[in-house]
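Dear colleague,

Thank you for sharing your sequence with our group. We've completed the structure prediction you requested, and as agreed, I am returning the results in plain text so they can be pasted directly into your records. Please verify that the sequence below matches your submission; if there's any discrepancy, let me know and we will rerun it promptly.
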Amino acid sequence: MLDRPPTPEETAAVRTAHREAYAALRPTVRPTHGARELVDGLRGRGVPAVVVTGSGPDATRDVLAEVGAAPLPVVHTGGAVPPKPDPTSLRAGLDALGASAEGAWAVGDSVWDMRAASALGLTAVAVRSGGIGDDALRAAGAEAVVDDAAAVLELVADACDEPARVGA
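Please find the predicted structure tokens below.
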């Protein structure tokens, strides 16, 4: 960890190393269990969704295509949109949907995701795919911690039975 902000050259070197490492691992990357079903389930229920990610455009495009979510709007962090835990990226996602924070959910797998969601008053749902423990996710604001995207769909289905709880 640096005790100072990284230089532009250091930032560029880290981004290049990340791109190269991802390119080598890409053939082994698989969506979390139930990801395609979650996307289809949201569409089928008319629940709007947006992807807010720090991943690069190429990686995001590949994964979204694999789960059939390619038409979803995407907000990339970096540059003018600060990364999570700053809530600006989630606010931009809501704006892309023309939605308010009231009744909206954020689904993520990191402490940063949960902190950003909590800062906006979103219902924060954590998926155990980021290698972070339940206690840390809950301490960061997760209202639910689930095993995979299939479990998120179950929460959405339950919430759709109670319309006041859903409405991104």
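Summary note from our side: DSSP finds seven helices and five strands in the chain.

Kind regards,
the structure core
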